[in-house]
Amino acid sequence: MGFDQTPQFTRPGAGLSRRWLVALSVGLALVPGVVAAHPRWFTEKGPYWDPEWQRIFSLPVLLALLSGAVVVGLLAWGERITGDPLWPRPPFLQRLEPAAPAILGVQTAITMIFIASRLDLFVPNIELPHNALGVLIAGLTVVAAFAFITGVLTRIGAAMVVALFFLGFFFADWYEVVEQLLFVGIALYLVAVGRGVVRADGVNEEDRSAMTDRLLPHALMILRVSAGLTVLILAFTEKLINVDLGVAFLREYPEFNVARELGFTWFSDERFVYAAGIVEATAGIALISGYLTRVVILVIWLPFNLGIPFLPAEELIGHLPILSTMYVLLVRGTQGIPALAADTERSPDQRPAEAMRA
């Protein structure tokens, strides 16, 4: 059905008809196409995808909230005892700090490009239409990602990521988009801190402004809270109030229920999903609290990585933003907190715009 056959005659209104045909073709190209359902938690789309909101008032949710409250209390007590919100402070962490924004930007960009190449937005379950509109949005995602990789116009790329996040509400259920708040936190962090480009003339960044200076003291808090909210929301929407989704996953990967594999037959798939949700919700609440963030990161690092070797490569690629965020929160964090004697090699602070213009 091409347009390669040229009519042998001209009739009145033919040009107008062709214009209408072109307009109709463009319009049809922008209509969302029919696409195959993408997996969520490595399960095909089904009735178990949707959270059961009535489970908000359930015993597992209550246990998760109580667990989070207890852990936050212990962390607050630990911070009071140590007298240092950044405990522990091994000196080598300070040497790792300068590269943190670049690692965050590059690893987030890898995920964005990989997902966009499949005509999805941020995660496989936010599907873009398989037409010109979907290709355009995926292309904008790749442009923003390359800004993160190269460090060129990083703040514009970050603004694009925030806009793409809100655009996601047109293509997926609201809770599936809210689950990706981490990308907004990463974008705002890079707006405030910059990508970490070092120029030959000795100027660190070319586009700092008064707005970025006002945002800078809050950058780590924004990144930490967005990460904690993402972890907490996923604990609810994929586990605590959507246990059937986790059970469907365990039917495909039964070996993940380690307790049952070890002979504890009473530890059913449903109980495993609830236990995982409680642990994940506790981790999210602990991150949001801001107490002893380095301790929280060190404790949750292993559980967040245990399953990756046993799942498809997409799992590792999809985890890169949260893993790089954890890296930033682990090694970066001296902003606004006095250095202790253990900090033998402290990373330089970000330069305010006024100082750069001096």
Report the average pLDDT across residues.
80
Portion in beta strands: under 5%
Structural class: mainly alpha
In percent, how helical is the residue content? 55-70%
Largest sheet: 2 strands, antiparallel
Summarize the helix and strand pattern as letters. HHHHEEHHHHHHHHHHHH
Number of domains: 1
Number of E-state strands = 2
Distance between the termini: 64 Å
Q: So what's the oligomer here?
A: single chain
Strand order of the largest sheet: 1-2
Cα-atom radius of gyration:
24 Å
Poorly predicted regions are 1-14, 19-38, 199-203, 335-358
Number of helices: 16
Shape designation: globular
Task: Please name the defining characteristics of this protein.
60% helix, disordered N terminus
3D structure, described in words:
This protein has one domain. Helix content is 60%, strand content 2%. It contains 16 helices and two strands. It starts with 13 loop residues before the first helix and ends with a helix. The radius of gyration is 24 Å and the shape is globular. With 358 residues, the chain is mainly alpha-helical. The chain has helices at residues 14-30, 59-82, 92-96, 100-116, 132-150, 154-167, 174-178, 181-193, 210-215, 219-240, 243-252, 258-261, 269-289, 293-306, 313-331, 353-357, and strands at residues 120-121, 123-127. It has a two-stranded antiparallel ribbon with strand order 1-2.
Summarize the structure in short.
The chain is an all-alpha fold.
List the helices and strands and how they pair.
Layout: H1 14-30, H2 59-82, H3 92-96, H4 100-116, E1 120-121, E2 123-127, H5 132-150, H6 154-167, H7 174-178, H8 181-193, H9 210-215, H10 219-240, H11 243-252, H12 258-261, H13 269-289, H14 293-306, H15 313-331, H16 353-357
Antiparallel strand pairs: 1-2
Helix pairs in contact: 2-13, 4-5, 4-8, 4-15, 5-6, 6-8, 8-10, 10-13, 10-15, 11-13, 14-15
